[in-house]
Amino acid sequence: MIFIIIIGMSIVTLLPRIIPAFIVDKLQFKEWVNRWLNAIPYAALGALIFPGVLSVNADKPYIGLIGGIVAIMLAYVGLNVIFVVIGSILSVFLLTTV
After folding, report:
1. Same-domain check for residues 22 and 60
2. Looking at the domain assignment, is residue 50 inside a domain?
3. Are residue 4 and residue 36 in the same domain, yes or no?
């Protein structure tokens, strides 16, 4: 019985993920819709990261903001995302140990 429940749950979670992959390829959107859809991952990433930036250190919230600003500056320069993350982590680390 448990095996049937696990199989059913996997199918229920798999279908909403697979069906759009086949449908979206066949649709043709206008250019402004494509630009809007391309911005969604960045907006979602920002919404996920920003609360963490503010909660790095409860006593000194400016440390997280400085780490975020460092990440923005490194990304603006055009560095690889790995270097942006390492630079931001390093700046927060240095500010919290001082």
Report:
1. no
2. no
3. yes
pLDDT band at 59 (very low <50, low <70, confident <90, very high): confident
Is residue 38 situated within a structural domain? Answer: yes
3-state secondary structure string across the chain: CHHHHHHHHHHHHHHHHHHHHHHHCCCCCCHHHHHHHHHHHHHHHHHHHHHHHHCCCCCCCHHHHHHHHHHHHHHHHCCCHHHHHHHHHHHHHHHHHC
Lowest mean pLDDT among 4-8, 50-54, 91-95: 50-54
Domain with 80 in it: 55-98
pLDDT band of residue 2 (cuts 50, 70, 90) is very high
User: Does residue 64 share a domain with residue 85?
Assistant: yes
**Same domain (yes/no): 37, 69:** no
What's the whole-model pTM score? 0.57
CA distance 98 to 84: 21
